[in-house]
Write a structure and sequence with these properties.
By secondary structure, the protein is an alpha+beta fold. The protein has three domains: 109 residues, Butyryl-Coa Dehydrogenase, subunit A, domain 1 (Orthogonal Bundle); 110 residues, Beta Barrel (Butyryl-CoA Dehydrogenase, subunit A, domain 2), CATH 2.40.110.10; 148 residues, Butyryl-CoA Dehydrogenase, subunit A, domain 3, CATH 1.20.140.10. 53% of the residues lie in helices and 15% in strands. A hairpin with a 2-residue loop joins β2 and β3. The chain is globular. It starts with 6 loop residues before the first helix and ends with a helix. Bound molecules: coenzyme a persulfide.
Length: 383
């Protein structure tokens, strides 16, 4: 058993950490105020080679797998959650759909440009009446000769407005639904009939765009179909297994940031003649957060190891996401409490971390969905 990062992973962590300090932290307030992650920042991430961290080397990436992706996600999130989520929409669930479901020819066609950050990806599964239950989706794909015709609307799509190539899941056989009735397609931004609609105003992660996408008789060539006809649900779920894991790394990064600020504040501020942290009530909060972070980190990287060594990790990824998102909520809540009025003021970063954290219990599968995934697997396979 070896819990050390390899030399390569350590280098990537240092690179992502330096990038976060130099490029993200100084811009975080502006990103929050303008509700916008500058494309130039994403281009710089690509120049550093971080966009392709999880893409296999034979397709132009660094080949550091989910572990590498989690390392980068953790570091970027410490600087700004919105930047990390924008990165993840592309590098995690965007490019990952192609890695999970693409043919060899498709991987060669799209992954090198995705790894280079020239082709930004996004992932479109959710609909207004099909969030937790994607098998209820209404977007349709009908075959017409060598093309498919897509009609419908997707909602809550991260980076849907900036992506060059969106993985869209559509119902190709309504009788089969989740069991072979859904097919995945790679839809280019300039496809005729494809449009970007409303942008959500959100409680947190305001720099990351979340939009509606509409498909009005969008014609997609059959060679843009990802995987077999009817394989879409499995590709969507296989991609989400990875996305949920990367999200637990996001939670870990945000938690470490909130905790580090809390520790520093508790060491500096004095009340009743002693440091804040020396009051047992505050010390215990810091201890609980430290324990949560240790568990989050252990679960995240152990699950990444399972994934990278090609062992089953679907249940573990749901556990990591469930625990990390709920632990993060506890940690940011404690951070607000420790900072008192300062924690509630929009002038200081803790208030932003508190808002940024909340959606992690909702997107990429709610806590209730994670429990459902875990319970089904426990009942099927035992512990
Ligand atoms: N990997 C690969 N295949 C999977 C899978 C996974 N992780 N999970 C399920 N499947 C397969 C099943 O094996 C089944 O295959 P068969 O048709 O061969 O039987 C098929 O997919 C359907 O699975 P299931 O019957 O479990 O589907 P359900 O409709 O009951 O849905 C849940 C299962 C609830 C787990 C799924 O709908 C889900 O994850 N929902 C949340 C979606 C979500 O996270 N949305 C957030 C937006 S995306 S950012």
């Amino acid at each position: 058993m070896d819990f050390h990062f390899s030399e390569e992973l350590t280098m990537v962590r240092d690179l992502a950490r330096d990038f976060t300090d130099a490029e993200i932290r100084p811009r975080a307030q502006e990103i929050e105020r303008t509700h916008h992650v500058p494309r130039e920042l994403l281009d710089k991430l690509a120049e550093c080679g971080l966009m392709g961290v999880a893409v296999p080397e034979e397709y132009g990436g660094s080949g550091l797998g989910e572990t590498g992706l989690c390392v980068v996600m953790e570091e970027l999130t410490r600087g700004d959650f919105s930047v990390a989520v924008t990165f993840g929409a592309h590098a995690s669930i965007g490019a990952m759909s192609v890695i999970v479901g693409g043919t060899e020819e498709q991987k060669k066609r799209w992954l090198p440009e995705m790894a280079a950050g020239k082709l930004l990806g996004a992932y479109a599964l959710s609909e207004a009446d099909a969030g937790s239950d994607p098998g209820a989706m209404k977007t349709t794909a009908v075959r017409d000769g060598s093309e498919w015709v897509l009609n419908g609307e997707k909602v809550w799509i991260t980076s849907g407005d900036i992506a060059d190539l969106v993985t869209v899941y559509a119902m190709s056989d309504t009788a089969k639904r989740a069991h072979g009735g859904i097919t995945a397609f790679m839809v280019p931004r300039d496809a005729k009939g494809f449009s970007v609609g409303k942008r959500e105003e959100k409680m947190g992660q305001r720099g990351s765009s979340t939009v509606t996408l509409a498909f009005d008789n969008v014609r997609i060539p059959d060679d843009h179909r990802l995987g077999d006809v009817g394989a879409g649900f499995k590709i969507a779920m296989g991609t989400l297994d990875r996305g949920r894991l990367a999200l637990s790394a996001n939670c870990l990064g945000c938690a470490k940031e909130a905790h580090a600020l809390s520790v520093s504040y508790a060491n500096q501020r004095e009340t009743f003649g002693k440091k804040l942290g020396e009051h047992q009530g505050i010390g215990f909060m810091l201890a609980d957060s430290a324990a949560d972070i240790y568990a989050m980190e252990s679960m995240t990287y152990r699950t990444a190891w399972l994934c990278d060594t090609k062992q089953p990790f679907s249940r573990e990824s749901a556990i990591a996401k469930l625990f990390a998102s709920e632990a993060l909520d506890r940690i940011v809540d404690r951070a607000v409490q420790i900072h008192g009025g300062m924690g509630y003021s929009a002038e200081f970063v803790i208030e932003k971390l508190y808002r940024d954290a909340r959606v992690t219990r909702i997107y990429e599968g709610t806590s209730e969905i994670q429990r459902l995934v875990i319970a089904r697997d426990v009942l099927k396979r035992g512990f």
